[in-house]
Predict the structure.
Amino acid sequence: MVGVDTRRLRLLLALSRLGSMRAVADAFSLTTSTVSQQLAALAKETDTQLIEPDGRRVRLTPAGRRLADHAVTILAAVDAARLDLDPDAEPAGTLRVGGFATGLRVSLLPILRELGRTHPSVEVEISEYEPLEAFELLVDDDLDLALTYEYDLAPASPDPVLEAFPLWSTPWGLGVPSSEVTAGTATADIRNYADRWWIVNSRNTADEDAVRTLASLAGFRPRIAHQIDSLDLLEDLILEGFGVGLLPITRAVRDGVTVMPMSDPKVVLTAFAVVRRGRSTWPPLRLVLDRLRPPDGRPVPLMSWPRPTVHGSG
């Protein structure tokens, strides 16, 4: 069946329903000679006799009838695919989204509430992944959209088949026990923490890369002691004196933990929407991307980093 022209399948299906070459020709505004030639070409493509004489008319052979039955399913699938790929079609289908917890919470959930009302034919499957995990799934075509992040000190390097759109940015600082912060201290001096244990993300290397870059610029090698996949747990460890680590400045923290801004260099996290190249025109994906992206395409500040009630990464 490789290389079968679907237009010829439509003619065969029409013959099975209308019963004569003349009726098929009239239905498709063709000549009977053209219909006959196209069906002969289809028989050659399938290497099967599809029609046989029936008095002064023709009829489908048993193989022709079976192919006509298959044509119903084949043509329906082709029509569905064409509609699905039409950028002007009404969005419908299942969109597979994966990403880091805060990105899903901040960027995606408000959109889903709207889509549930305005586009009920679009269904969204959500999974939590760190950027490297999401990139791999996108490349393997196991995700349609990923919400990822990178630090300016540790830029991501996704596969060339992927393209990324910036969503929002937020500054990060150094999380330390509040008891260690002296009055009047405006920013964190990383050199003061050269002998401390450091806490980094357990599932993504960007956090550790940013810490190592900061330390290298300050002239020391950080002692990485803990790898934690939860900002809440990271705060617990800081509070108990087990180390220091990076936290978003705009995120509310528990009593006893202070997030100190950093300068020279600053640490900024930017969130991205990432898709496979050439896929962004698929109607369900475009629907979400248009609502995710700022109008001018530039990163926008995230004014408040919500504190989740459950543990999560990012």
